[in-house]
Design brief:
The model has no long low-confidence stretch (mean pLDDT about 95). The protein is globular and about 55 Å long. It has about 350 residues and is an alpha+beta fold. A hairpin with a 4-residue loop joins strand 10 and strand 11. The protein folds into two domains: about 100 residues, Malate/L-lactate/L-sulpholactate dehydrogenase, four-helix barrel (Hypothetical Oxidoreductase Yiak, Chain: A, domain 1); about 190 residues, Malate/L-lactate/L-sulpholactate dehydrogenase, NADPH binding domain (Ribosomal Protein S8, Chain: A, domain 1, 2-Layer Sandwich), CATH 3.30.1370. The protein has a seven-stranded mixed sheet with strand order 2-3-4-13-5-8-9, with helices on both faces. The protein is built from ten helices and 14 strands. The relative contact order is 0.18.
Length: about 350
């Protein structure tokens, strides 16, 4: 296992801001992106956090991202919207889309906002969780930025990890936050394993002969496996249709692999749904009911050898609390890569 180093949150955010400013992003927008990108590391989604900075910078320098986008609602009705991200940074596009969904749900009760012409935006839970601060439930869907999943029984890469996240507010208990790819592991986890020199567990990937693939540095020789077999394949398809095809965004063969292509726009599609709890029942009653349900699950009888029954989001909530106390956890190889990037950009290193 690689050594994990801890850095003050403000120092990591400041480093990310310096990097983005050096390639032409405004200070205000660089700060917004940095806050979301670093939060991914705080909650344990390290495959989608600061780890992605060199890749994002590479695509910006390659001309694949619009640094001065006109992010806007291209279509709207009281309970829906279609955001045109104008090929802007995904974090900025999704923050805008989520704010619009929350605003609409305040009066409509439920709001569905689709997104086209966006880019990779980090972990799904970032955006599903935002409506909770307004006593709303959040639902997020997206088309992944590379196809690593074939149809069930096939080998052609026509589907992505297509994530789904749902965030439900509670009262005294931590919120329920489900954030999952439709593959057993997100490809970001494969990339972080490769950077750290670690092997993958069996069950993440398979080669084209149907044998387990364990070396993450050979990931291009195989494909990710779907959750639940054919059910995960079906779920990936549906998410692709809702977040991609419905929005006029990339899906299937149109998906650009941003791991290897640093010049082409990806036309990434997302969906954010905000559900206003107060339109269904008093918020306090709902949250107390969620608490009661959580405690029933946690205190239910366990199988022999099981030390605790955990709930979705419990681990990321614990990691967030730990990171707020101890600082942002970054692996040694990642820190080395970030400081090499700093040298290329001629900015102050992280440390």
């Amino acid at each position: 296992m690689s050594e994990i180093l801890r850095f003050a949150i403000k120092d990591v955010e400041a480093f990310v801001v310096r990097a983005y400013e050096s390639v032409g992003i405004s200070a205000a927008e660089a700060k917004r992106i940095a806050e979301l990108q670093v939060r991914a590391d705080l909650i344990g989604a390290d495959g989608h956090g600061v780890f992605r900075l060199p890749q994002y910078i590479r695509r910006i320098k390659g001309g694949a991202v619009n640094l001065k986008p006109d992010i806007r609602l291209a279509r709207e009705a009281p309970a829906m919207g279609l955001v045109d991200g104008d090929n802007g940074m995904g974090h900025l596009v999704m923050r805008y889309a989520t704010e619009k969904a929350i605003e609409k749900a305040k009066s409509a009760g439920v709001a569905w906002v689709g997104v086209q012409h966006s880019n990779h935006a980090g972990p799904a839970s970032l955006y599903a969780s935002m409506p909770m601060t307004h006593d709303m439930i959040g639902l997020y869907l997206a088309v992944g930025n590379a196809n690593h999943l074939p149809p069930w029984g096939g080998i052609d890469m026509l589907l992505s990890t297509n994530p789904i996240a749902v965030a439900v507010p509670a009262d005294k208990e931590p919120p329920i936050v489900l954030d999952m790819a439709t593959t057993v592991a997100a490809y970001g986890k494969v990339k972080t394993k490769a950077q750290r020199g670690e092997m993958m567990p069996e069950g993440w990937m398979m080669d084209r002969q149907g044998k387990p693939l364990l070396d993450p540095k050979k990931s291009n020789e195989g494909f990710l496996l779907p959750i639940g077999g054919y059910k995960g394949y079906g779920l990936s398809m549906i998410i692709g249709l809702l977040a991609g095809t419905l929005n006029g965004a990339a899906n299937g063969r149109d998906v650009v692999d941003f791991n290897f292509d640093s010049t082409s726009p990806t036309n990434t599609g997302h969906v954010i749904v905000a559900i206003n709890v107060s339109m269904f029942q008093p918020v306090s009653e709902f949250k107390q009911s969620v608490d009661a349900f959580v405690r029933d699950i946690r205190n239910s009888q366990r199988l022999p050898g099981v030390d605790a029954i955990r709930l979705p989001g419990e681990g990321s909530h614990a990691r967030l609390e730990e990171s707020l106390r101890l600082g942002v956890p970054l692996s040694g190889p990642l820190v080395k890569a970030l400081n090499e990037l700093a040298g290329e950009l001629k900015i102050a290193p992280l440390g």
